[in-house]
Write a structure and sequence with these properties.
Elements: E1 2-5, H1 13-22, H2 25-32, H3 35-48, E2 58-63, E3 66-75, H4 80-90, H5 93-109, E4 117-125, H6 134-148, E5 153-159, H7 163-172, E6 175-184, E7 187-197
Parallel strand pairs: 4-5
Antiparallel strand pairs: 1-2, 2-3, 3-4, 5-7, 6-7
Helix pairs in contact: 1-3, 4-5
Length: 199
Protein backbone atom coordinates (compact mmCIF):
# COMPACT_ATOMS: atom_id res chain seq x y z
CA UNK A 1 0.00 0.00 0.00
CA UNK A 2 1.16 3.52 -0.82
CA UNK A 3 0.03 6.83 0.67
CA UNK A 4 0.37 9.63 -1.86
CA UNK A 5 -1.03 12.99 -2.89
CA UNK A 6 -4.02 12.70 -5.19
CA UNK A 7 -3.00 13.23 -8.82
CA UNK A 8 -6.13 13.62 -10.95
CA UNK A 9 -4.14 12.70 -14.07
CA UNK A 10 -3.09 9.39 -12.55
CA UNK A 11 -5.67 8.34 -9.95
CA UNK A 12 -9.36 7.64 -10.47
CA UNK A 13 -11.25 10.77 -9.44
CA UNK A 14 -14.46 8.75 -9.75
CA UNK A 15 -13.23 6.29 -7.10
CA UNK A 16 -12.15 9.19 -4.90
CA UNK A 17 -15.65 10.69 -5.26
CA UNK A 18 -17.25 7.36 -4.35
CA UNK A 19 -15.12 7.18 -1.21
CA UNK A 20 -15.97 10.79 -0.33
CA UNK A 21 -19.63 9.79 -0.60
CA UNK A 22 -19.02 7.14 2.08
CA UNK A 23 -17.94 9.82 4.57
CA UNK A 24 -21.47 11.33 4.77
CA UNK A 25 -23.72 8.98 2.79
CA UNK A 26 -26.87 9.57 4.88
CA UNK A 27 -26.95 13.28 4.09
CA UNK A 28 -25.82 12.82 0.48
CA UNK A 29 -28.61 10.29 -0.08
CA UNK A 30 -31.12 12.70 1.43
CA UNK A 31 -30.21 15.39 -1.12
CA UNK A 32 -29.18 13.30 -4.14
CA UNK A 33 -30.96 9.96 -3.69
CA UNK A 34 -28.08 7.62 -4.43
CA UNK A 35 -24.34 7.09 -4.63
CA UNK A 36 -24.01 7.45 -8.42
CA UNK A 37 -25.70 10.86 -8.58
CA UNK A 38 -23.78 12.15 -5.57
CA UNK A 39 -20.46 10.88 -6.91
CA UNK A 40 -20.87 12.86 -10.15
CA UNK A 41 -21.15 16.13 -8.22
CA UNK A 42 -18.34 15.19 -5.83
CA UNK A 43 -16.07 14.20 -8.73
CA UNK A 44 -16.63 17.59 -10.34
CA UNK A 45 -15.61 19.35 -7.11
CA UNK A 46 -12.55 17.11 -6.71
CA UNK A 47 -11.39 17.77 -10.27
CA UNK A 48 -12.04 21.54 -10.18
CA UNK A 49 -10.01 22.08 -7.02
CA UNK A 50 -9.89 25.34 -5.05
CA UNK A 51 -12.71 24.16 -2.76
CA UNK A 52 -12.93 22.09 0.44
CA UNK A 53 -13.39 18.89 -1.59
CA UNK A 54 -10.76 19.79 -4.17
CA UNK A 55 -7.89 17.52 -5.17
CA UNK A 56 -5.36 19.71 -3.36
CA UNK A 57 -6.87 18.58 -0.01
CA UNK A 58 -6.82 14.86 -0.73
CA UNK A 59 -4.33 12.05 -0.27
CA UNK A 60 -5.02 8.52 -1.46
CA UNK A 61 -3.97 5.04 -0.44
CA UNK A 62 -3.28 2.89 -3.48
CA UNK A 63 -2.64 -0.78 -3.96
CA UNK A 64 -1.58 -2.05 -7.38
CA UNK A 65 -2.38 1.44 -8.79
CA UNK A 66 -5.96 1.16 -7.49
CA UNK A 67 -7.34 3.79 -5.07
CA UNK A 68 -8.49 1.96 -1.95
CA UNK A 69 -8.63 4.79 0.59
CA UNK A 70 -8.70 8.56 0.95
CA UNK A 71 -7.84 11.32 3.37
CA UNK A 72 -9.55 14.70 3.00
CA UNK A 73 -7.84 17.29 5.20
CA UNK A 74 -7.32 20.99 5.79
CA UNK A 75 -6.08 23.47 8.34
CA UNK A 76 -8.35 25.11 10.87
CA UNK A 77 -8.47 28.42 9.02
CA UNK A 78 -10.27 27.46 5.81
CA UNK A 79 -12.51 30.18 4.36
CA UNK A 80 -16.25 29.56 4.43
CA UNK A 81 -17.20 32.67 2.45
CA UNK A 82 -14.81 31.77 -0.35
CA UNK A 83 -16.23 28.25 -0.38
CA UNK A 84 -19.79 29.54 -0.81
CA UNK A 85 -18.77 31.83 -3.67
CA UNK A 86 -17.05 28.91 -5.35
CA UNK A 87 -20.11 26.66 -5.05
CA UNK A 88 -22.50 29.25 -6.46
CA UNK A 89 -20.11 29.99 -9.32
CA UNK A 90 -19.39 26.37 -10.31
CA UNK A 91 -22.56 24.42 -9.51
CA UNK A 92 -26.13 24.95 -10.60
CA UNK A 93 -28.27 26.88 -8.12
CA UNK A 94 -30.01 23.80 -6.67
CA UNK A 95 -26.73 21.94 -6.06
CA UNK A 96 -25.10 25.02 -4.56
CA UNK A 97 -28.06 25.36 -2.15
CA UNK A 98 -27.82 21.67 -1.28
CA UNK A 99 -24.15 22.06 -0.37
CA UNK A 100 -24.97 25.18 1.63
CA UNK A 101 -27.50 23.13 3.62
CA UNK A 102 -24.95 20.34 4.11
CA UNK A 103 -22.51 22.96 5.41
CA UNK A 104 -25.15 24.27 7.82
CA UNK A 105 -25.76 20.71 9.06
CA UNK A 106 -22.03 20.24 9.51
CA UNK A 107 -21.74 23.44 11.54
CA UNK A 108 -24.12 21.89 14.10
CA UNK A 109 -22.15 18.69 14.70
CA UNK A 110 -18.55 19.01 13.53
CA UNK A 111 -15.62 20.11 15.69
CA UNK A 112 -14.82 23.74 16.27
CA UNK A 113 -11.36 24.34 14.81
CA UNK A 114 -8.50 26.58 15.83
CA UNK A 115 -5.94 28.01 13.41
CA UNK A 116 -3.29 25.65 14.76
CA UNK A 117 -5.42 22.52 14.12
CA UNK A 118 -4.99 19.90 11.42
CA UNK A 119 -8.46 18.66 10.51
CA UNK A 120 -9.12 15.19 9.12
CA UNK A 121 -12.33 16.07 7.30
CA UNK A 122 -12.88 12.66 5.78
CA UNK A 123 -11.29 9.24 5.95
CA UNK A 124 -12.67 6.34 3.94
CA UNK A 125 -11.43 2.91 2.94
CA UNK A 126 -12.95 0.76 0.21
CA UNK A 127 -15.14 -1.87 1.89
CA UNK A 128 -13.22 -4.65 0.15
CA UNK A 129 -9.96 -3.54 1.83
CA UNK A 130 -11.15 -2.71 5.34
CA UNK A 131 -9.25 -4.40 8.14
CA UNK A 132 -6.03 -4.61 6.09
CA UNK A 133 -4.27 -1.58 7.56
CA UNK A 134 -5.24 1.21 5.16
CA UNK A 135 -7.05 3.18 7.88
CA UNK A 136 -4.06 2.96 10.21
CA UNK A 137 -1.73 4.01 7.39
CA UNK A 138 -3.90 7.07 6.68
CA UNK A 139 -3.98 8.08 10.35
CA UNK A 140 -0.25 7.63 10.85
CA UNK A 141 0.60 9.65 7.75
CA UNK A 142 -1.91 12.38 8.66
CA UNK A 143 -0.39 12.73 12.14
CA UNK A 144 3.08 13.01 10.57
CA UNK A 145 1.81 15.71 8.19
CA UNK A 146 0.34 17.65 11.12
CA UNK A 147 3.63 17.46 13.03
CA UNK A 148 5.61 18.63 9.99
CA UNK A 149 3.32 21.65 9.71
CA UNK A 150 3.77 22.52 13.39
CA UNK A 151 0.12 21.93 14.28
CA UNK A 152 -0.82 21.59 17.94
CA UNK A 153 -3.78 19.28 17.52
CA UNK A 154 -5.21 16.77 15.04
CA UNK A 155 -9.01 16.82 15.00
CA UNK A 156 -11.58 14.53 13.43
CA UNK A 157 -15.25 13.70 13.74
CA UNK A 158 -16.73 10.23 13.78
CA UNK A 159 -20.41 9.34 13.41
CA UNK A 160 -22.09 8.24 16.63
CA UNK A 161 -22.89 4.83 15.14
CA UNK A 162 -19.43 4.17 13.65
CA UNK A 163 -17.94 2.23 16.55
CA UNK A 164 -15.30 0.51 14.39
CA UNK A 165 -13.76 3.80 13.27
CA UNK A 166 -13.98 5.22 16.78
CA UNK A 167 -12.03 2.23 18.15
CA UNK A 168 -9.33 2.73 15.50
CA UNK A 169 -9.02 6.42 16.37
CA UNK A 170 -8.86 5.68 20.12
CA UNK A 171 -6.13 3.04 19.55
CA UNK A 172 -4.17 5.75 17.74
CA UNK A 173 -4.48 8.08 20.74
CA UNK A 174 -7.49 10.24 19.86
CA UNK A 175 -9.88 11.13 22.68
CA UNK A 176 -13.50 12.27 22.53
CA UNK A 177 -13.80 15.88 23.66
CA UNK A 178 -17.40 16.55 22.66
CA UNK A 179 -20.55 14.87 21.40
CA UNK A 180 -23.07 16.67 19.19
CA UNK A 181 -26.30 15.46 17.65
CA UNK A 182 -29.72 16.55 16.44
CA UNK A 183 -32.86 15.03 14.95
CA UNK A 184 -32.90 14.91 11.17
CA UNK A 185 -36.31 13.91 9.84
CA UNK A 186 -36.92 11.42 12.63
CA UNK A 187 -33.37 10.07 12.74
CA UNK A 188 -30.75 11.21 15.25
CA UNK A 189 -27.51 12.06 13.52
CA UNK A 190 -24.39 13.30 15.17
CA UNK A 191 -20.70 13.06 15.79
CA UNK A 192 -18.13 12.39 18.44
CA UNK A 193 -15.59 15.20 18.12
CA UNK A 194 -12.13 13.71 18.72
CA UNK A 195 -8.68 15.20 19.18
CA UNK A 196 -5.05 14.21 19.47
CA UNK A 197 -2.63 16.74 20.98
CA UNK A 198 0.82 16.77 19.41
CA UNK A 199 2.61 19.03 21.89
Amino acid sequence: MRFEKLDIRKHSSQKVAELLYETDWVIFNFFYGNKATTAKILEKLVRLGENNLGHEHIYVVTQDERVIGILLYFGGNHHKLGELKFLFKNLNLIDAIRFLLIDLKDSLILSYLKKSDFYLAGIAVDEEFRGEGAGGLILGQAINMARQRGCERVVLDVALDNSGARRLYERTGFKVFNKKSFLWFGRRIGMFNMELYLK
